[in-house]
Specification:
Elements (H helix, E strand, L loop, with lengths): L1 H34 L3 E10 L5 E11 L5 E2 L5 H6 L3 H21 L6 E4 L2 H5 L3 H11 L7 E6 L7 H14 L2 E7 L8 H4 L4 E4 L1 H4 L10 H12 L3 E4 L5 H9 L4 E2 L10 H8 L2
Parallel strand pairs: 2-4, 4-5, 5-6, 6-7, 7-8, 8-9
Antiparallel strand pairs: 1-2, 1-9, 2-3
Bound molecules: ligand C2E and calcium ion (3 copies).
């Protein structure tokens, strides 16, 4: 009996240890990715619903492991936020995306980029000076940049957030609210902050199912955006049916596997350089 309980305790602690070890491994991998610049942005097209033209691309972070495999954000963003490694990772990402934007420009491709910014990164006092100086140094047109922020940010000090957003907006950089409607925050921030567009979360788009479509949330967000003179972008568009319905519901911009999965910078170039 004693043995059994000992065995169970032992099993439990081994499990704890393996959680700890894999976290530790990820942490080391993140540090290594930052030191060796093993961050790779992929890009997903954002399409104008009316014309089908490319409106912008969203940059999505991947980390390369020692075998060259791409690790998706679901495996590292939470840990990176908890350890604040999201700040150097995010800075690396911004540098890479701006460099790519310049390379595209030199090829004759004018592509707007949308960059995801973690609340941890946005709230860090180094963020605003960092992004302003990088845009300046690399001669990036701030009009060609959009920052995607999540609603969880709006639970923080709105005065500071507003002043940072105002600085960016004055230069021409736009702000969109990512995963709109999933964040449990009070909608009044939309009145107070200089937001340009709402990204309709893919969980709502998924409810536009051809057999039994539930449109109420998509319709509500689209109407809210229109009445506040904001743009809106539907993410996670996977079918022609969804694309069609979203356009009918007045959502001007669409993004999802139906148009393209996230691809490399080169693939963007071959596809859109005509
Ligand atoms: P997100 O910003 O909501 O990005 C959309 C996610 O949906 C991406 O996953 C994208 O690949 C995926 N997706 C695109 N189209 C479809 C579709 O039609 N169907 C489905 N089911 N999924 C689709 P990904 O690339 O794995 O990124 C996951 C999340 O990681 C992002 O969600 C974002 O919150 C975060 N993330 C990605 N890159 C960065 C970054 O550079 N910085 C920060 N802070 N977060 C990032
Ligand atoms: Ca996003
Ligand atoms: Ca999103
Ligand atoms: Ca999302």
């Amino acid at each position: 009996k004693k043995d059994a309980s000992h065995g169970r305790l032992c099993f439990y602690s081994q499990e704890m240890e393996s959680v700890y070890t894999s976290r530790r491994k990820r942490y080391i991998q993140l540090k290594n990715a930052i030191a060796k610049h093993l961050v790779v942005p992929l890009y997903q097209p954002i399409i104008c619903a009316k014309t089908g033209h490319l409106q912008a691309v969203e940059a999505l972070m991947r980390i390369k492991d020692e075998n060259g495999n791409m690790i998706p954000p679901s495996e590292f963003i939470t840990l990176a936020e908890e350890t604040e490694l999201i700040i150097p990772l995010g800075e690396l990402m911004i540098n890479l995306v701006f460099d790519q934007q310049i390379r595209w420009l030199n090829q004759g491709l004018h592509i707007r980029v949308c960059i995801n910014i973690s609340p941890i990164q946005f709230l860090d006092p180094s963020f605003l000076p960092f992004i302003l100086s990088v845009m300046d140094q690399k001669a990036i047109n701030p009009n060609m940049v959009e920052l995607e922020l999540t609603e969880s940010l709006m639970l923080e000090n709105l005065t500071q957030i507003k002043s940072d957003m105002d600085r960016l907006r004055k230069l021409g950089t736009s702000i969109s609210i990512d995963d709109f409607g999933t964040g449990y925050s009070c909608l009044s921030y939309l009145r107070d902050l200089p937001v340009d567009s709402l990204k309709i979360d893919k969980s709502f788009v998924a409810q536009l199912n051809i057999d039994n479509p539930d449109e109420v949330l998509v319709k509500t967000i689209s109407t809210l955006a229109q009445s506040m003179k904001l743009s809106s972008i539907a993410e996670g568009v996977e079918s022609q049916f969804q694309a069609q319905r979203l356009q009918e519901l007045g959502v001007p911009l669409l993004q999802g596997y139906y148009f393209s999965k996230p691809v490399t910078a080169d693939q963007i170039q071959t596809r859109y350089l005509i």
